[in-house]
Amino acid sequence: MRFSETVPSNYLKAADLQGVRAKVVIESVGFDEFQNSKTGKKDRKVIINFVGKEKGIVVNVTNGNILVDAYGDDMDGWVGKPVILYAGRTTYMGKPCMGIMVDIPGNKAVTQAPKQRPVPQQPQIPPEAEEVGNEPIPEFDDVGPEGDIPF
């Protein structure tokens, strides 16, 4: 038996996925209230439930922004849309932890590796500038290999 199984939850936890990426379809979007351990007040959070699944997820800001980018700001428009759920590193109350992450099927911006930034080329000094006697622009030895400015 896993310890995570001894701590019941109405909502999906990262451990529930057991390392699998799960493709699901949004069945409903609603709200629930949670006790804020810092303030003692109740916070209203967005909840998503999935077709054929017992547990839904509490939507954090990162996942909410992914859904908004893919399906729009109107949460009613999310119903019937597919998502992929997976466990990933995140923070909760400022501490690193595992959490449920959302991806959109076919979302190349999320599923592909980021592209390398192009290395800037040195500016070319036109021949007429040398004829006039202008000094060439000195090279900067402190520019990193990726073209980053060290500051």
Write a compact overview of the structure shown.
This protein has 151 residues and is α+β, with helices and mostly antiparallel strands. The chain has helices at residues 61-71, 108-111, 127-132, and strands at residues 22-35, 42-50, 57-58, 82-92, 95-103. The protein has a domain at 3-105.
Keywords:
alpha+beta; five-stranded antiparallel beta sheet; disordered C terminus
Q: Helix and strand layout, with pairings?
A:
Elements: E1 22-35, E2 42-50, E3 57-58, H1 61-71, E4 82-92, E5 95-103, H2 108-111, H3 127-132
Structure write-up:
Helix content is 14%, strand content 30%. The protein has a domain at 3-105. β4 and β5 (95-103) form a beta hairpin. The chain has three helices and five strands. Strands 3-2-1-4-5 form a five-stranded antiparallel beta sheet. With 151 residues, the chain is α+β, with helices and mostly antiparallel strands.
Largest sheet: spatial strand order? 3-2-1-4-5
Biggest sheet statistics: 5 strands, antiparallel
pLDDT averaged over residues: 78
Question: Kindly, what is the distance between the CA atoms of the first and last residues, rounded to a whole number of angstroms?
Answer: 51 Å
Number of strands: 5
Uncertain spans: 110-116, 136-151
The rough form would be described as: globular
Proportion of beta-strand residues: 25-35%
